[in-house]
């Protein structure tokens, strides 16, 4: 908000837990068990009265996490909602807990040529990076198009494209959270890095906006 951002949308499927209070400084003890996407509003207003925030409580569909036939319609609806959110925003920050949860938002940001920034924590490192632009201009189609004819090493201006969070992967993302104990989740075991990585991500966003090439 110090960089002048006044409109933002928070997407989250969970509720505030005790482990969130120490590492996610906007939440307080009184927010426990309240959906994260809505609990954040009051605290944002306390810090900046002019901010306009919206909360969306939904699960991001993830590769490696199979769904039943009963859940298929709901998952498809979440895909459409997420696509609409990406299309109607200027920038997307991927601050999710797992690698696979970043895959669909990354794909949608590339399709819509949106600014995408990832902040991620590991046991021995952390990452704050911007994703490269999509393979072409902003698609006017309501559907995501994935075809080899659209893939190119250059952007629409003829410059070399930057990679994304998944460009060096040799396999598709898989389920990385099942049967993992709380102490094996990096966002919990390294709480001090959360503010550092997110701070770098916000500064990276400001630098992109002020760079002549964007």
TrEMBL record:
SUPFAM superfamilies: Activating enzymes of the ubiquitin-like proteins. Residues 3-211 form the THIF-type NAD/FAD binding fold domain. Gene3D superfamilies: NAD(P)-binding Rossmann-like Domain. It holds the Pfam family ThiF. GO terms for molecular function: Atg12 activating enzyme activity; Atg8 activating enzyme activity. One of its GO terms (biological process) is autophagosome assembly. InterPro entries: ThiF/MoeB/HesA, ThiF_NAD_FAD-bd, Ubiquitin-activating_enz. Transmembrane segments: none annotated. GO terms for cellular component: phagophore assembly site. PANTHER family: UBIQUITIN-ACTIVATING ENZYME E1, UBIQUITIN-LIKE MODIFIER-ACTIVATING ENZYME ATG7. This is THIF-type NAD/FAD binding fold domain-containing protein.
